[in-house]
Design brief:
Helices cover 28% and strands 21% of the residues. It is built from seven helices and twelve strands. The chain has a six-stranded parallel sheet with strand order 3-2-1-4-5-12, with helices on both faces. The protein has a six-stranded parallel sheet with strand order 6-11-10-7-8-9. Helix 1 crosses helix 7, helix 2 packs across helix 3 and helix 5 packs across helix 6. It binds ligand 3Y8 and NADP nicotinamide-adenine-dinucleotide phosphate.
Length: 251
């Protein structure tokens, strides 16, 4: 019985999965939220934009006869992951998450772990420093209470609205990044401290290795809580799950 797969994308692993699913000849649609101007092209039919909450995703699943959902979104895309658990529960659709492990500090690293964005902001109390804020665009406003620092911001698209940080230098660049590039960038701007999400994976890893090479401290933001769901760490495991899972809807 043929499967009809929905891949919730936006990560390096989602792209790798799309290639594997395409090569396996499995019917699938790739989904982006539509956050950036030029998302990577995928070898699968691609939809762009929110579904309209849980109900919108339930309708999408039903109207498109989706039998399996793979949540391959970023570990900080907690709302999408919660919605996927709810919508698949309501429709009896098989769900699995393709995730990647958190980065772990080694003995030479100087990381300060904070639970969330607001705690990262609080950790920036103190005299002006050159801070690399490598967390994208969506949460820049949260850092407005710490205007004293000289920020190096890396954004996927040039900002359309006002950026609430007076002393900043904006680099427009879309990952995956390289360690050499990030070392050069940090040196060029005299970066003294990096703020990072614990994204895991390889696409955002360059700055972690660059910080290690330059012996720079990192404020590392832990991942938001995500509801329990089956998780695997590779495209091969997703394909095996598809082979072994039935296509009947749960009752
Ligand atoms: C829209 C479109 C692939 C996917 C590549 C990964 C790696 C490169 C590194 C830094 C950190 C950051 C950010 C980052 C990385 C990968 C992956 C990853 C971090 C794209 C993409 C979309 C997004 C959304 C975007 C967020 C932003 C976050 C930039 C695509 C390029 C900071 C996360 O301007 C905005 O609104 C940007 C929003 C969510 C976080 C934020 O708060 O701003 N990602 N990133 C997806 C959609 O529309 O559904 O996939 O081509 C994808 C990638 N970005 O196939 O190679 O796997 O994580 N993305 C973070 O980790 O902190 C950059 O600068 O060092
Ligand atoms: P989020 O906060 O968890 O989701 C907010 C809303 O965006 C969701 O409720 C949903 O809207 C929509 N959405 C999110 N991902 C979607 C997808 N793949 N397809 C369709 N709609 C999606 O998500 P986010 O943190 O903004 O992340 C958005 C996208 O960027 C995701 O694809 C994620 O993988 C990617 N990304 C995020 C980060 C990050 O740091 N957050 C990093 C790298 C890549 P509706 O409720 O209307 O359905």
């Amino acid at each position: 019985m043929a499967h009809t797969l929905l891949i919730l994308g936006g990560t390096t692993e989602a792209t790798a999965l799309a290639i594997a699913v395409h090569e396996a000849g499995i019917t699938a649609t790739f989904s982006y939220a539509g956050r950036v101007a030029r998302p990577k092209r995928q070898p699968l039919p691609t939809r762009i934009g929110g579904f309209g909450g849980v109900d919108g995703l339930v309708n999408y699943i039903r109207e498109n006869g989706i039998t399996h959902v793979v949540d391959a979104t970023h570990p900080f895309a907690a709302q999408m992951s919660m919605n996927a658990v709810d919508a698949c529960g309501q429709t009896g659709t098989q769900l699995i998450a393709l995730t990647r492990p958190k980065w772990q500090a080694d003995v030479t690293d100087n990381w300060t772990h904070v639970p969330d964005i607001d705690a990262a902001v609080a950790a920036l109390n103190g005299p002006p420093k050159n801070v690399m804020l490598a967390i994208g665009r969506m949460h820049l406003d949260a850092f407005a209470p710490q205007p004293q620092h000289r920020y190096l911001l890396r954004l996927v698209d040039a900002p359309d609205g006002e950026v609430p940080l007076p002393n900043r230098h904006i680099v427009v660049d879309q990952g995956p990044f390289s360690v050499e590039n990030d070392i050069a960038l940090m040196r060029e701007h005299g970066v003294e401290l990096i703020v990072s999400k614990n994204a895991g994976g390889t696409g955002a890893r360059a700055k972690i290795d660059a910080a290690r090479a330059l012996n720079l401290p990192i404020i590392m933001i832990d991942r938001p809580a995500i509801p329990a769901r089956p998780e695997v760490g590779s495209s091969a495991q997703v394909l095996a799950w598809l082979d072994h899972s039935s296509t009947e809807r749960g009752v």
